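Contributing new records

If you add data, match the layout below exactly. Sequence lines come first and carry their own label; structure lines follow with theirs. Keep one chain per record. Anything else will be rejected by the validation script.
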Amino acid sequence: MRQGREKRQNQITRRKLLILAGLLLLAVLVGVTIFFWVRGKGSGASQTKVGLKYLKSLESRDAKAIEDEIKAIKKEEQKEALENGELTIWEQFDDYAIMGDSRTMGFDQYGFLPSERILAHGGATIADIPDYMESLKNLNPANIFLCYGLNDVSIGYWDTPQEYVEALGEAIESIKSELPDATVYVNSIFPAQDPAFEQAEKWREIPDFNEVIKPYCEEKGYPYIDNTEIIQEHTDLYDDDGIHLKEEFYEYWAINMLAEVEIG
């Protein structure tokens, strides 16, 4: 099973490198073409300066920026295929586990993914991750999605976002120590909206937590799934409580996760 997983991951890596190499080559060819076109238009210093400036801009585009563009394109293609009925996003999930709270439970409750792959319960925080470690080891997934944060912010274990990310990092490292071949992905926290704040004023601080979690993950090398855009586009898909999410939202969430992970 592990050999099959490694073979599949190697195929994904090779495909990814080929796409990146193609885009880099295309960028260079376009840059060279523009450079010589500018030179052909005249020998003035201003034309040459324009060409050199463009080439310099190409040099500054690193592999991550190009990779982000690929993910954005893939996400848009998946979204269109889903809306056109050409894609069932759930078929794209393979060799994974999703951990989290009551929001996460929707993947199971709505029948999208098998229950044994959804390690979640209402009120859960990252402090509950050790309780699922045996189940996680039995699954031995290649990809682990963390979808915590709602209760982490409101329950009061961590007073500041800085304290929280330190605990998050410890939780991730505890998973990696048991499953060193797995990749752990951190979802941004979906904000709450009215009337949720009647239950917990602390939920107003969720954006502040996300602002700290994202750079922390980038610094530590933990893949981060930014859900900001999709939740802003689909605020109508909150339940009436302003906390939980309607069935229709989960497909958009899944697309956003897979665009980052590139499973299968």
